[in-house]
Amino acid sequence: MAKKQIVILGAGYGGLRTLRNLQKAKPDAEITIINKNDYHYEATWLHEVAAGTIEANDACFPIKDQVKGATKFIQDAVIKVNKEDKTVELEQHGLISYDYLVFALGFESESFGTPGVDEHTLPIADIPSTKRIREHIETKFSQWKTTQNDELLTIVVGGAGFTGFEFLGELTNRIPYLVKQYDVPREKIRIICIEAAPSVLPMFTKDLANYAISRLEDRGVEFKIGHPIKEATADSVIYADGEERKEIKCGTFIWGAGVRGSGVVGASGFEERRGRVMVNANLTVPGNEDIIMIGDCSAVMDTANNRPYPTTAQIAIQQADYAAANIIALLNDQPLKDFVYKPKGTVCSLGDNDAMGLVGDKALKGYRASVLKKVIDDRSIAMLGGVSTMLKKGKFQFYK
Length: 400
Known about the structure:
It is a single chain. By secondary structure, the chain is an alpha/beta fold. Helix content is 32%, strand content 28%. Helix 1 runs parallel beside helix 8 and helix 1 (13-25) crosses helix 9. The strands form nine sheets. It has a six-stranded mixed β-sheet, covered by helices on one side.
């Protein structure tokens, strides 16, 4: 009898953690993991690559090093899942059959239909996009020397969420180096963050959010809170100030105002909203219990506030543990476990030696929080790539 086929789509936090757990369990089945790149990247480090405070290679490690035994790795882009035929259509390798599927494809940038955003902004979405941001900023600073056009030194960040704050923290750390490298006057550099909502960082207390704002303002960041972005052009951003439309000329416009699940979700005909599927309590897809969906493409309801949990690396890793256990249960015709999320706290980096966050009910600020953030990052690497990878890629330099 042919062995059952387990296919994992995506080698992000959820997919790679599921793979490691399944390989440890050694099921009587063949496992295939599919990813468009031959590397895993730490998505929570993308803001550092974009700002240029770490190199792209620092945030990545090869998938092949995590593929053990009879597991197969296919580097290819997923086009869609054919639920009725139980196949996955790939760009280069055609159709791959599955008996059980773990859908763990990641996120995409979400423009919310704002005119010009897709054409004229730089999203923090993956390794190539972050490399483009770094190169773009450096190019604009280089051009200033010959043009003396101060608008080239204006950087606008759309969105004051987690990604926006972490990028701003790294960028303000990098500015002194850029000033020296390109011989530009620091006082001519403007960094502006525009947010549509009336407040920022709703996952934290008001005190912590205010701390984050004040720390970045001390480094020269200007915040425009409660001002929806209306349009992006090739050299400016237009936002609403009450009934009035205002324009800021800029050399760089970073888009960090939102994400959605992979477009493969919609292409495959799943019932979804912004690329996310409301999954069953055991993480299976309603009507397709041979598919487990985790990470950025899954929506799990938080009964405390009757809203889906935010998509984070923390929840994806926890989902992966349940996904692997439930795949084993499906293979053995055993009951599946319902997913129970156990939040372990959230820490937002504000640069190399500054951060703030909540661990349980305890609020942390400053250097202590930044150390904890590095410990969290190192733990993530160890959980996905093992101790050897953590020792190569981990963040052990607590002082600079």
